[in-house]
Design a protein that fits this description.
Arc Repressor Mutant, subunit A, about 150 residues, three-stranded antiparallel beta sheet, mainly alpha, DNA-binding, homodimer
DNA sequence: TATTGTTATACTCTATAACTATA
DNA sequence: TATAGTTATAGAGTATAACAATA
C-alpha cells in the first residue's frame, strides 16, 4: 500500500513532515490577514479561484473541494451572491441541485487584485534567494495535489 | 530591494504563487481536522513545537512567532498550563514579563504522538511518487523560513 | 511615557442537527 | 429510502479595546 512512499520513520523525512505542517499552519495564518479584498474571507477567495478554474460547480462539489461542510458552503455562496460575485441557477437535470457560476464582476475583481497579491508575496519572497524560490516553485504543484488528494 | 527575487510578473511565477497560496489554505484546513490530540488546537500544537525548538519564550515572543495577538496567546498559554503542558515563571530581569517553559509531560506527549502524525501524513503522501515527495522535502525548510520571515 | 501582559467583549468561520424538496 | 441544499443553533478561535503593572 505504501510502495510509492518513502519510509517516514526516517528522521529526515519526519523532520520534513513536521516542518511542513508547522509552516503550512503559520503561513495560512498570515495569508488570512493579507486579504486582497477586505470584505472577502480566505475561503470565499478560494471558492472564486476554484470557479475560475472549473467554470461552474454545484454547492456540494464546492464543499467537497474546499473541505467544508455543506451548510458552510451554503453560507459562503450566499455571501458571494449578495456581493454580486457569483450567480446561482437551477440545475438542468436535477431540481435538487443548483449551479454556481462566477460573474464578470468576480473576474474583474480577481484581475485587479493580482498586482496587490504580487506585492504582498514579493515582500515575503524578498527574503529568499533564487535557489530557495526555485525549490518552492517546484513544490507548488505537489502541495496543490496534496491539498485535494 | 528585489534583487534576490525572481520577477513575479512572469506568468510561471505568478501561477506558482497562486498555487502556493491556494494549496496552503486548503491544506491548513485539512490539518486542522487531523489533530494528534483531540484536546489540542493547531496553534497550541504549534506553540509546543516552538517551545521544543527554542527551549523557553515569553508570551509576547510566542505571539509574534505564531502571528497571533497577545490576548490570544494569553488564552492559549493559560489553556496549555491548565493541561499541565507548560509552566509559567517570572522573568528574572523584567517583572512585567513571564517565561513559558515546556513541561516533561509535553515532551512525552509529543514523543508519543509521533507515530499518530506519521500515520496521517503517510496517508496523504501515499498519493505522491518519490520525485514529488523529494520536491516537497526540499521545499519544507523554505516554507518554514517563509512562515516566520 | 512606553511596554508586557491581562480582562472583557464581540466577531468570523465552521460544525452538527433537524428540516424541506426532489430523486 | 437516499440525496442536495437550507435553516437554526452552538462552539472554537481570534481580534480589538480598555486596563493593570512595571520599565
Amino acid at each position: 500500500m505504501l510502495k510509492n512512499m518513502p519510509d517516514l520513520t526516517h528522521g529526515d523525512d519526519e523532520a520534513a513532515v513536521n516542518a511542513l505542517r508547522s509552516a503550512v499552519m503559520r503561513l495560512s495564518r498570515r495569508l488570512k490577514h493579507q486579504r486582497v479584498d477586505e470584505s472577502l474571507s480566505p475561503t470565499e477567495m478560494s471558492v472564486l479561484g476554484t470557479l475560475a478554474r472549473c467554470g461552474t460547480a454545484t454547492p456540494g462539489e464546492l464543499a467537497r473541494k474546499e473541505h467544508v461542510q455543506p451548510p458552510s458552503m451554503t453560507r459562503i455562496v450566499a455571501l458571494l451572491e449578495s456581493k454580486g460575485l457569483v450567480k446561482l441557477e437551477p440545475h438542468p437535470e436535477d431540481r435538487r441541485q443548483k449551479v454556481v457560476t462566477q460573474t464578470e464582476r468576480a473576474e474583474t475583481m480577481l484581475e485587479e487584485s493580482r498586482s496587490k497579491r504580487n506585492a504582498f508575496l514579493a515582500s515575503l519572497v524578498e527574503g529568499l534567494d533564487e535557489a530557495e524560490w526555485e525549490k518552492l516553485r517546484a513544490a507548488a504543484p505537489v502541495l496543490e495535489k496534496l491539498a485535494h488528494l
